[in-house]
Amino acid sequence: MKILVAYAGKSGGSREMCLLLASLLPNHEVVLCDLAEAPVAPTGFDYVVFGGAVRFGKLHRAARTYIKEHGSALETIPHTLFLCCAFADQFENYAEMLFPAVLLEGAEDIVYFGGELNPAKQRGLDKIIVRMMRSAIRDSEDDEAMLPGLLPEHVRMLADRLRQL
Ligand SMILES: Cc1cc2nc3c(=O)[nH]c(=O)nc-3n(C[C@H](O)[C@H](O)[C@H](O)COP(=O)(O)O)c2cc1C
User: Fold this and answer.
1) What's the whole-number mean pLDDT along residues 96-108?
2) I need a labelling partner for 125 at 20 to 30 A (CA). Which of 19, 72, 77, 106 fits?
3) 53 lines ligand 1 (CB under 6 A)
4) Which of 15-29, 98-112, 136-150 has the lowest mean pLDDT?
5) Is the C-beta atom of 84 inside 6 A of ligand 1?
């Protein structure tokens, strides 16, 4: 089966999770696509995994452009959507806000790939913002509050399902 794994991120988390996914699908012909570099149209693929990073409540620009240009083609192809974001409790809200209803309704799954707040992977203002976000989590009244991370186990579960196709 020909599978397109298309992602848009800034600091490497979405890319890392999509590389992992591709490596776990040896029985399929997988095309990995960084939407910010060279977008690949969904047409001609049997299945598409599509998504990207959330910053300031918005989906990465390259993913938004892809939805505008290829959303109607994507609707017609079996697909799974994913998001990379640090605030797990906001994942469902973000998915509803950031993907068109028709893509959500048609999706076989909508998967949370986790999200990092790692200042070492950020530059300039982003580094400062990530440090502030980390402090806010650490200083929160919820003693259980933990710093977020990527979720390769969610990617492995998705891969287990896609290997059966
Ligand atoms: C400047 C900045 C803003 C962010 N804004 C949000 C946000 O609004 N909601 C959220 O859940 N995570 C937010 N994050 C966390 C990112 O979603 C997280 O770092 C994710 O792993 C980024 O994916 P990427 O490495 O593929 O770019 C933000 C991160 C940065 C650096």
Assistant:
1) 98
2) 19
3) yes
4) 136-150
5) yes
| 37-89 per-position pLDDT tens digit | 999 999 999 999 999 999 999 999 999 999 999 999 999 999 999 999 999 99
90 lines ligand 1 (CB under 6 A): yes
Is the shortest distance between the CB of 116 and ligand 1 below 6 Å? yes
* Same domain flag for 41 and 88: yes
Q: Which residue has the least CA distance to atom 15 on ligand 1?
A: 86
- Cα separation, 153 vs 155, in Å, equals 5
- pTM of structure: 0.97
The answer to whether residues 81 and 158 belong to one domain is yes
How many angstroms separate the CA atoms of 73 and 15, rounded?
A: 23
Please tell me if the CB atom of residue 130 comes closer than 6 angstroms to any atom of ligand 1.
Answer: yes
**Who contacts 36 (Cβ-Cβ below 8 Å, separation ≥6)?**
8, 60, 61, 62
| CATH label of the domain that carries residue 12 | 3.40.50.360
Coil vs helix vs strand at 96 = helix
Ligand 1, atom 5: nearest CA belongs to which residue? 55
Average pLDDT over residues 117-125: 95
Q: Give the domain range for residue 38.
A: 2-115+150-163
More confident residue, 146 or 31: 31
Residue 60 near residue 45 (C-beta atoms within 8 A): no
106 with 137, same domain? no
Counting the structural domains of the chain, the total is 2
Same domain, 137 and 109: no
Answer whether 36 contacts ligand 1 (Cβ < 6 A): no
